[in-house]
């Protein structure tokens, strides 16, 4: 696949440029039906060529525009391709911060009434753990917009205590927090057991807070990904991104300046320990 395979109006979405290609995005929205198969092809392409680069080293970008546009379109036919993409070993470099910032909402946007493929992502320990967390949050979005019945969701949360492997995993923390958030009281013995076995991440939440949430002593706190719901405006979502290769990468590489090797500043990830020293994750503290 090359830019020449696309309609002219979509070609600016192919490689990473230095600014947001608003006219191309607007044209894709205006020509929705014509655009959809090309956008899905853009996701298929990155699944086949995850290391694709332009002739001058440009990063491939169309998969990200495609993912968000197809989410805005509620294009359910794109769901299998997006799921295939997020299963790639290279997913962290391909999606960068959009894994934690938007993937849950994308998955919820393209899933229609189907929860099965999302649950398969949650339960597959071969998948990158923060992709699994995004899938977990997608189910919460579907609960909040009425596509997943609260009782069915609660029952699924309880079932995960026997499905997830008994090894340290970010999902154990997310599961414990969700059960507390929705006051699934019958899960509390399993939550205490998970904490006792060291399966949870204490930088995410502590047992005493989980117990207090169960008792109603703390108000329920919904993550931004849940309260904001499905993708409705790609331009609003993506126009504020920093459009350069380093900003979209998980971290900056060391760079050479002149004859000296100078270490580039490090980006603090949302799931890294907060630099303030609180012991919490950055996204739960000073972000």
Describe the structure in your own words.
The protein is an all-alpha fold and 287 residues long. The chain is built from 16 helices and 2 strands. It has helices at residues 22-30, 32-48, 62-72, 79-86, 91-95, 98-101, 103-110, 116-123, 129-144, 150-163, 170-181, 188-196, 207-214, 224-227, 234-238, 245-248; strands spanning 255-257, 260-262. A two-stranded antiparallel ribbon has the order 1-2. α3 (62-72) packs across α7 (103-110). The radius of gyration is 20 Å and the shape is elongated. The two termini are 39 Å apart. The model is unreliable at 250-270 (pLDDT under 50).
Characteristics:
287 residues; mainly alpha; two-stranded antiparallel sheet; 49% helix
Short description:
This protein is mainly α.
Task: Report the biggest beta sheet as strand number plus sense, adding barrel if it closes.
Answer: 2 strands, antiparallel
Counting DSSP E segments of at least 2 residues, the number of strands comes to 2
The first-to-last residue Cα distance is 39 Å
The percent range for helix content is: 40-55%
The coarse overall form would be: elongated
Please count the helical segments.
16
Low-pLDDT ranges: 250-270
Question: What structural class should be given to the helix and strand makeup?
Answer: mainly alpha
What order do the SSEs take from the amino end to the carboxyl end, as H and E? HHHHHHHHHHHHHHHHEE
Strand content: under 5%
What is the arithmetic mean of pLDDT? 84
Radius of gyration: 20 Å
Physical arrangement of strands within the biggest beta sheet? 1-2
